[in-house]
Design goal:
The strands form 3 sheets. Strands 3-4-2-1-5-6-7-8 form an 8-stranded mixed beta sheet, with helices on both faces. Strands 13-12-11-14-15-16 form a 6-stranded parallel beta sheet, sandwiched between helices. The protein is α/β, with parallel strands linked by helices. Helix 8 links the parallel strand 7 and strand 8 (about 235-240). Helix 5 packs antiparallel against helix 7, helix 9 packs parallel to helix 10 (about 315-330) and helix 12 packs across helix 15 (about 425-440). Helix content is about 40%, strand content about 15%. One of its GO terms (molecular function) is glycosyltransferase activity. It comes from Salinirubrum litoreum. InterPro entries: Glyco_trans_4-like_N.
């Protein structure tokens, strides 16, 4: 199979920024464009159970594949305020209807079938419609929940499956469910917790990882897990990490060059200098993020150190964090900005003196790595991370920050105090981080690994998938 020399310029309506300008509108995957006979570029269909945009890993992968000459369609479930069909980052995006009465009914019916079978008919129908109009050469599945659906589609249409596992899903679900409510607030969620316990997710993970044509993961620790615990073929598991696009995050800012006001807005320039040492965290507020440890660390420090939490998400965890801030009396030194557009993130990082990844140690965090670590390093900021395996390995290897025991707020306070009191150390660690990102931990390198996987999958003799042992009932056999 050959790829065309197609580039992003060949597709109108590129909305990489996530703005609402769209090239097309429509109500379902049935409205997908029919490929012309002259276009022989392999067609990748990405299945994303979440929204696109703003998922930055999906956007980076789309851009890499488009640049390499692949055509990409993303079938996603949101956002609800975007057109049902548009072009984003050069990919044709199809969003499944969850807003109309018929769309909600179809979604609930599909979710009901998914509970006993692990197959989502709603997504299977979307793939079938797309495949009929513009044959799909590779199905790229983001995360585990749609793995069984994609493997059934492979059996029906002969389309190879790339399973892109952003995290250790069975362990991630365990963490997420610790903050979910009971039956009255979410009957379907309550039922899913009982029909999809951790043990079932682990069984599905083992089966689907072995059957996928290729598995992508984000750190070597996760690759080791799939080889050791799932019996994956080593030649078919590749690390494509959550590294950074160098042009988006450049060194600069910090004390004397910028400050973060209590409102969470960034000031920069000669009048923005401040004696306050600003330590920042960027990202979600899940319980496994360890933000309670960061807040307690700041409470243990003298005045002059402020913590900026760039992100949010509401829900139980944010409420608990706000209550902790009030309890410790540090409301004047800890600011929660709420969600900000990704385009604003580099400014917040640049205006900080040091940055945190305070993750708790769990089987989930031990097998993943957040984008934020590489964003901090690319901006030349010293980092304080916990002794979670991937974080500690990268920071120790690159000498880009300080590692403290997870959950130990006194140790974190000592590390923050050390950085805030030693500008020379901050500069040295920050430069080391930037050097490491330029040499190794950048998206250019990971994009090449991604494209190499696709070239190999498309060139491989696919053979027949008949009788591969996948049944609809239970999603496994």
């Amino acid at each position: 199979m050959t790829r065309s020399g197609e580039t992003d310029a060949d597709t109108p309506g590129d909305t990489d920024s996530g703005s609402a300008d769209s090239a097309h509108t429509g109500d379902s995957a049935d409205s997908a464009e029919t490929a012309t006979s002259a276009d022989h570029a392999p067609h990748v269909c990405m299945l994303l159970p979440g929204a696109f945009p703003p998922d930055i890993r999906v956007r980076k992968e789309v851009t890499a594949l488009r640049t390499a000459g692949y055509r990409v369609t993303v079938v996603a479930s949101g956002p609800a305020d975007r057109p049902k069909r548009e072009t984003v980052a050069g990919a044709s995006v199809v969003r499944l209807d969850r807003e109309t009465r018929s769309g909600r009914a179809a979604w609930l019916a599909s979710a009901g079938i998914n509970l006993p079978t692990a197959i989502h008919p709603r997504w299977l129908v979307a793939v079938r419609r797309l495949h009929r109009r513009d044959p799909v050469d590779v199905l790229h599945v983001h995360d585990l929940p749609l793995g069984g659906t994609a493997l059934l589609a492979r059996r029906l249409f002969g389309t190879p499956v790339v399973l892109d596992l952003h995290e250790n899903y069975p362990e991630a679900v365990t963490q997420w469910r610790r903050t979910t409510r009971g039956f009255r607030s979410s009957p379907l969620g309550w039922l899913k917790r009982r029909l999809f316990p951790r043990s079932r997710w682990q069984r599905l993970e083992r089966r689907w990882v072995r059957r996928a044509d290729h598995v992508l993961t984000v750190v070597p620790e996760a690759r080791d897990h799939y080889l050791r615990d799932c019996g994956a073929d080593p030649s078919r598991v590749t690390v494509v990490s959550n590294t950074v696009e160098l042009a988006q995050f450049t060194p600069g800012g910090g004390r004397g060059e910028g400050s973060v006001r209590p409102t969470g807005t960034v000031d920069s320039g000669p009048d923005a200098a401040s004696d306050v040492c600003t330590v920042s965290y960027v990202g979600g507020f899940g319980a496994h993020r360890g933000l309670d440890t960061a807040i307690r660390a700041v409470a243990a420090l003298e005045s002059g150190v402020e913590l900026l939490l760039v992100g949010g998400g509401g829900g139980t965890t944010e409420s608990e964090l706000r209550a902790l801030i009030a309890e410790l009396g540090v409301g004047d030194r800890v600011t929660i900005t709420g969600w900000v557009d990704f385009e604003e993130v580099p400014g917040y990082v640049a205006a900080s003196d040091a940055c945190l990844v305070p993750h708790a140690r769990t089987p989930h965090t031990e097998t993943t790595v957040p984008h934020k670590l590489f964003q901090y390093m690319a901006t030349g900021k010293p980092v304080v991370v916990t002794d979670v395996a991937p974080l500690a390995r990268i920071v120790d290897e690159t000498e880009s920050g300080l590692v403290v025991p997870a959950g130990d707020h006194d140790a974190m306070a000592d590390a923050i105090r050390r950085l805030c009191g030693d500008a020379g150390l901050c500069g040295e660690l920050g430069r080391n981080g930037r050097t490491a990102v330029e040499a190794e931990y950048n998206w250019d390198r990971d994009a090449k690994r991604l494209v190499a996987v696709y070239d190999e999958v498309c060139d491989r003799t696919s053979g027949s998938y008949e009788g591969e042992g996948l049944s609809v009932v239970g999603g496994e056999r």
